[in-house]
Amino acid sequence: MTDAPKQTGRARTPPPSGASDARLMLRTMVRSVTDAPASALFGLTVILFYVVLGVFAPWIAPYGEAEILGRSYEPWAQQFVLGTDQLGRDVLTRLIYGARNSVGIALLATLLSFVIGASLGLAAAIRRGWFDVVFSRLVDLLMSIPSIIFALMLLTVFGTSVANLILIIAVLDSTRVFRLARAVGLGVTVTDFVEAARLRGEGTRWILLREVLPNVATPLIAEFALRFCFVFLTISALSFLGVGLQPPMADWGSMLRESATLISYGDPTPLLPAAAIALLTVGVNFVADWLLQKSSGVEA
């Protein structure tokens, strides 16, 4: 009887399941983006453009954020492509740094609002009882006051620092997130698999993270894009009113306020920060609309 031939090559070990899952997730994301409608691709391009501006602002901007370079309100020229502002700072540089400040702070405030609102809303849907009643009535009370007026009052009392701005906007916006998270959470908590988890003796935290959150993640992600737009516009409005981001930080809302008088002289400079705000809002809304269609199963 002859011996079996020996294997000369080295046996290939299968990749770990984590790497396979990551590759599968990446392929799914790429396929979803390539199959997205033109409006969503436009929105994703706009968001990517703003992200690049914000991250690489110190290397892209021709001058420093608060650097005074010339006379006030110099016209568009080769040295200052978009002219200068009332202090002689380069408008193009201020617009680029505005992408970092305005968008970055709005993103932080939106993330914090979702951490607060989604966790409390889902916990209220799971626990019910006094916990649900207390937080639901508190949210109703906060939502009965117009957000801009409430934010103006709180910023006047506690100061207009960046930390206070993020915290106040996040707390006020978390009320909307709480309502949505509680609504979608109530629809999941009555399902059989959640009842089975309760019968097994699982705690609230386990049910929240393992059973409820994965089943409500898609509408919450879609809502995140919409809430970001509202937070971004709120911060721009507060900066326009003078209680948002403070000088010398570049912010599109304050830039619009500072250059508004130039409209009377036919200078289009005030339209630049307004166009930057509008373009980002439209782009994010396109992406949010696409995510809502995917989460609802409705094809465009």
Key phrases:
300 residues; mainly alpha; MetI-like fold; 70% helix
Q: What would your notes on this structure say?
A:
- There is one protein chain.
- The chain is mostly helical.
- The protein has one domain (41-296): Orthogonal Bundle (MetI-like fold), CATH 1.10.3720.10.
- It is 70% helix and 0% strand.
- The protein has 11 helices and no strands.
- It has helices at 17-34, 38-55, 57-60, 91-127, 129-143, 147-158, 162-189, 192-199, 204-241, 252-258, 271-296.
- Helix 4 (91-127) packs antiparallel against helix 5 (129-143).
- The protein is elongated and about 75 Å long.
- The protein starts with 16 loop residues before the first helix and ends with a helix.
- The relative contact order is 0.13.
SSE topology sketch:
Layout: H1 17-34, H2 38-55, H3 57-60, H4 91-127, H5 129-143, H6 147-158, H7 162-189, H8 192-199, H9 204-241, H10 252-258, H11 271-296
Order of helices and strands: HHHHHHHHHHH
Q: Please outline the major beta sheet.
A: none
Regions with little confidence, pLDDT below 50 for 5+ residues? 7-18
Query: How many independent structural domains?
Result: 1
**SS-based class:** mainly alpha
Shape designation: elongated
CATH topology: MetI-like fold
Helix content percent band: over 70%
Number of helices: 11
Distance between the termini: 68 Å
Q: What is the CATH top level name? A: Mainly Alpha
What would CATH call the architecture? Orthogonal Bundle
Beta-strand content bin: under 5%
DSSP strand count:
0
